[in-house]
Amino acid sequence: MASVSESCSSDKVLSFARKDNHFGAYTLIWLDSLINSPKYIDKQKELRLSINYLQTFDNVDKCIKYIQSVSSQHRFIVIVNDDFCQQLIPEVHRLPQVFLIYIYCEYKPYDYQLYKRYSKLKYGYNQFDDIINRIRSDRSRRIEDRHDQPMLISIFNSNNNHEQSTTEIDGQFVQSQLLIAALLKMKTTSTDKNEFICKCRELYKDEKSQLHFVDEFERDYSSDFSLWWYTRETFLYRLLNKALRVQDIDLLFSFGFIIRDLEKQLRQLQYSSPIHVYRAQLISIEELNVLKDSINKLISMNSFLSTTRNLKLALAYFDPSTSDDEFQRVLFDINADPHQDSIKPFADISKISVFQQEEEILIMLGSIFRLINIYCDNNKIWHIKMNLCSDNQCELQTLYSHMANQYDSSSTKLTLFGSVLIDMANFNYAEKYLCQLLKQISSEHKDIYKCYHALGKVSFEKGEYETSLIYLFKSLEILQERRSNDSRLAYIYNSIGEVYQKKNEIKEALQSYEKALYIFKQTFADDHENIAWCYNNLGIIYLEQKKVSEALQYLTKAINIKQGKLPDGHPCLGNTYNNLGNVHYFRHEYKQALEKYQLSYEIFKKSLTPRHPSIARALKNIGVVYEVMRDFTEAKIHYEKALHIRQQVFKPEHPDLIEISKDIERISLNIQ
């Protein structure tokens, strides 16, 4: 059994490889077999003056694989030599991350038939300087408007119509709101700015133009100038929006103090009367179709939203040639009323913006809107009408508030951030930040027991059960040394019981759960949700012991309390419905088991990130029922969905991943 210090010291655990180290809105890709020849070295330097993020390739297959490997939230501008056109373009043209393709035809005329077949081929040139000039021109326009950059949108579907395609991102909506709330709840420390600057120096070490801005930021930045810095075309704007689009956890953590400064300044400048604003945007056909299916639903813009009061100015950003088979022109038409309670701030920043002529109204990160209507006008512009919502008025408020309140704002910011990451199933990142905290605080720090407890939960989720017990018993030991005899001990006993249960050490699990229940009963009323948590866990143990009536008794107690105390859609309800499904399955009541598992699945989808292991567990259980009912095709479909989630979260040696792989192998034999 490894020691605590050993399990936190491994650099391998804490290393995170980046697929893309370019942190601007656009990455320029140049594919040419002679890319490294002296002839093109100077041209590369020229391009870097226009766009800082240049990736070069001399092999078409490697170029294709790179483009395909990067998130669709990125945007690529591609330069390709005519010799590689026929190989590259058919493979990458339909990918959303490919925005424009420039063809360089040095020795042959441009193929206009190719241009007709592929809409993203806007230009063909036989002089490379012409390409550089065109990129500079396009770059200048993008700097001004920023409206062809991808948006990060989450949609909350409250009508529980399971046929809607958007239901699968409900949980992402809630979790994105919780992550933003955690970033805002953290307290800024004296080291935040210096740590951020060090990270920026590393990211931009080869880009002198951006390092100049980093130096200026270090010298001049203050919280009351955060909005001015955000509006400038520098590393800060590009890096923050890239981090938000691709959900780069490390960068978002580093940006925490700036996000808090921006929110504070927006509140200070809050617009005082109802306003009508617009935003021109290019979005993909797929994104537009999702929005069309989301009328009267809630939408969260998980980025700062730049808008203008001037309709003519918004429309002027559209190029008539930009609508094609891949991207459509849309105009967000937004009503915002600051008189609503608990509304996220929005402000007229035109007087402090670098771009004063834009009449910009900036809307806070994470603002929630109601999508009212979508229609296409005679100019082939899609109008998307939305109302900015009060956080208190939207349907998910009860669920969101209850989940947000579980995070202790008095904790250190690393403990708080780690807890949020665990709930988002970002276990490696959670481990990274919690181990970082262990190195920073003394053994006497008030939060050290929380840190060990959280690391125990991370190790449990990763299938590292022995390590989990080390952390949990260390947390328990610290509290006992402090002569604590309150509910904090009970939380740890419950976690210990969960590990023993996974190890199939049922006697030890039962003892831990009973200790937790005893302590909770000294502190809380009989109908408290923590009591229900213990009843739920005891029900699982009694089912493991084949004491079905006792299991059903405890699980029924648990669900009755939870239904009275928890909002609809809370994941703790999903856990107990799943366990009630297990009771029905054990009793060969397969129809009832399937109903409970499906109910559990729908709850998890509504409240958890799509990659959460609890969703995979519900999918697997649904598959088990279909398998026993000899519907092998449906069983395999659900097993494969569970496998897909577990592959995103777990290492190959995780017991749950091994188990689901065997399930698929077994069921495949029956289908053949």
UniProtKB/TrEMBL annotation:
InterPro entries: TPR-like_helical_dom_sf, TPR_rpt. The keyword Repeat applies. Keywords: Repeat, TPR repeat. It comes from the Eukaryota. This is Uncharacterized protein. PANTHER family: NEPHROCYSTIN-3, TETRATRICOPEPTIDE REPEAT PROTEIN (AFU_ORTHOLOGUE AFUA_6G03870). Coiled coil: none annotated. TPR repeats lie at residues 490-523, 532-565, 574-607, 616-649.
